[in-house]
Amino acid sequence: RYIQLQSGSKIQVTRDHEAEPGALTRQVELSGKPEQISKAEQLIKEVLAEADVGSSGVGSGGRKYNATQQGAETFQMKIANNKVGLIIGKGGETIKSMQTNSGARIQVCYLVI
Protein backbone atom coordinates (compact mmCIF):
# COMPACT_ATOMS: atom_id res chain seq x y z
CA ARG A 1 0.00 0.00 0.00
CA TYR A 2 2.87 2.38 0.77
CA ILE A 3 4.46 2.28 -2.69
CA GLN A 4 1.08 2.61 -4.40
CA LEU A 5 0.24 5.67 -2.29
CA GLN A 6 3.64 7.28 -2.79
CA SER A 7 3.94 6.73 -6.55
CA GLY A 8 0.35 6.72 -7.77
CA SER A 9 1.12 3.63 -9.89
CA LYS A 10 -1.01 0.52 -10.31
CA ILE A 11 0.35 -2.81 -9.02
CA GLN A 12 -0.83 -6.34 -9.76
CA VAL A 13 0.88 -9.56 -8.66
CA THR A 14 0.68 -12.96 -10.34
CA ARG A 15 -0.26 -15.66 -7.83
CA ASP A 16 2.16 -18.47 -6.99
CA HIS A 17 0.01 -21.16 -8.64
CA GLU A 18 0.23 -19.23 -11.93
CA ALA A 19 4.04 -19.25 -11.91
CA GLU A 20 6.22 -21.35 -14.16
CA PRO A 21 7.84 -24.26 -12.30
CA GLY A 22 11.51 -23.60 -11.64
CA ALA A 23 11.32 -19.86 -12.22
CA LEU A 24 14.14 -17.93 -10.53
CA THR A 25 12.83 -14.44 -11.17
CA ARG A 26 9.56 -12.68 -11.72
CA GLN A 27 8.92 -9.86 -14.12
CA VAL A 28 7.38 -6.78 -12.53
CA GLU A 29 5.25 -4.55 -14.72
CA LEU A 30 4.51 -0.96 -13.74
CA SER A 31 1.82 0.94 -15.62
CA GLY A 32 0.93 4.60 -15.54
CA LYS A 33 2.28 7.97 -16.52
CA PRO A 34 6.07 8.16 -16.92
CA GLU A 35 6.52 10.08 -13.66
CA GLN A 36 4.36 7.55 -11.78
CA ILE A 37 6.36 4.66 -13.19
CA SER A 38 9.66 6.29 -12.25
CA LYS A 39 8.46 6.88 -8.70
CA ALA A 40 7.18 3.31 -8.33
CA GLU A 41 10.47 1.92 -9.68
CA GLN A 42 12.40 4.05 -7.19
CA LEU A 43 10.20 2.89 -4.30
CA ILE A 44 10.64 -0.77 -5.25
CA LYS A 45 14.41 -0.37 -5.40
CA GLU A 46 14.38 1.35 -2.00
CA VAL A 47 12.41 -1.51 -0.43
CA LEU A 48 14.87 -4.05 -1.83
CA ALA A 49 17.90 -2.00 -0.79
CA GLU A 50 16.65 -1.62 2.78
CA ALA A 51 16.10 -5.36 3.09
CA ASP A 52 19.37 -6.51 1.62
CA VAL A 53 22.10 -3.93 1.05
CA GLY A 54 24.51 -4.99 -1.66
CA SER A 55 22.31 -7.77 -3.02
CA SER A 56 21.56 -8.20 -6.70
CA GLY A 57 17.80 -8.37 -6.19
CA VAL A 58 16.95 -6.02 -9.06
CA GLY A 59 17.77 -6.51 -12.71
CA SER A 60 17.65 -4.14 -15.61
CA GLY A 61 14.42 -3.03 -17.22
CA GLY A 62 13.23 -1.49 -20.42
CA ARG A 63 10.51 0.97 -21.28
CA LYS A 64 7.95 0.55 -23.99
CA TYR A 65 4.84 2.49 -24.94
CA ASN A 66 1.50 1.00 -23.94
CA ALA A 67 -0.98 2.00 -26.63
CA THR A 68 -4.00 0.97 -24.55
CA GLN A 69 -3.96 4.15 -22.49
CA GLN A 70 -3.18 7.58 -23.86
CA GLY A 71 0.00 8.94 -22.28
CA ALA A 72 0.68 5.66 -20.47
CA GLU A 73 3.86 3.61 -20.66
CA THR A 74 5.04 0.32 -19.26
CA PHE A 75 8.38 -0.46 -17.62
CA GLN A 76 9.63 -3.98 -16.97
CA MET A 77 12.27 -5.07 -14.49
CA LYS A 78 13.37 -8.41 -13.05
CA ILE A 79 13.38 -9.16 -9.33
CA ALA A 80 14.77 -12.31 -7.72
CA ASN A 81 12.08 -14.64 -6.39
CA ASN A 82 13.46 -14.38 -2.87
CA LYS A 83 12.90 -10.59 -2.98
CA VAL A 84 9.38 -10.52 -4.43
CA GLY A 85 7.80 -10.96 -1.00
CA LEU A 86 9.38 -7.68 0.06
CA ILE A 87 7.58 -5.89 -2.78
CA ILE A 88 4.24 -7.57 -2.10
CA GLY A 89 4.39 -7.22 1.69
CA LYS A 90 2.18 -8.87 4.30
CA GLY A 91 -1.32 -9.22 2.88
CA GLY A 92 -0.25 -7.23 -0.18
CA GLU A 93 0.03 -4.03 1.84
CA THR A 94 3.38 -2.88 0.41
CA ILE A 95 2.45 -3.33 -3.24
CA LYS A 96 -0.96 -1.71 -2.69
CA SER A 97 0.75 1.24 -1.08
CA MET A 98 3.19 1.54 -3.99
CA GLN A 99 0.31 1.62 -6.48
CA THR A 100 -1.63 4.22 -4.52
CA ASN A 101 1.38 6.47 -4.04
CA SER A 102 2.70 6.22 -7.59
CA GLY A 103 -0.51 6.08 -9.58
CA ALA A 104 1.07 3.34 -11.71
CA ARG A 105 -0.07 -0.27 -12.02
CA ILE A 106 2.50 -2.80 -10.78
CA GLN A 107 2.26 -6.44 -11.82
CA VAL A 108 4.60 -9.27 -10.77
CA CYS A 109 4.92 -12.23 -13.15
CA TYR A 110 7.10 -15.36 -13.04
CA LEU A 111 9.73 -15.96 -15.72
CA VAL A 112 11.69 -19.10 -16.48
CA ILE A 113 15.32 -18.38 -17.29
UniProtKB/TrEMBL annotation:
Pfam families linked: KH_1 (PF00013)
Biased composition (Polar residues): 1-12
Keyword tags: RNA-binding
Listed SUPFAM superfamilies: Eukaryotic type KH-domain (KH-domain type I)
Record has Ubl conjugation as a keyword: no
Residues covered by the K Homology domain: 1-46, 74-108
Disordered: annotated segments: 1-20
Molecular function GO terms recorded: RNA binding
The keyword RNA-binding is assigned to this record: yes
PANTHER family per UniProt: KH DOMAIN CONTAINING RNA BINDING PROTEIN
Protein name: K Homology domain-containing protein
Source species: Zea mays
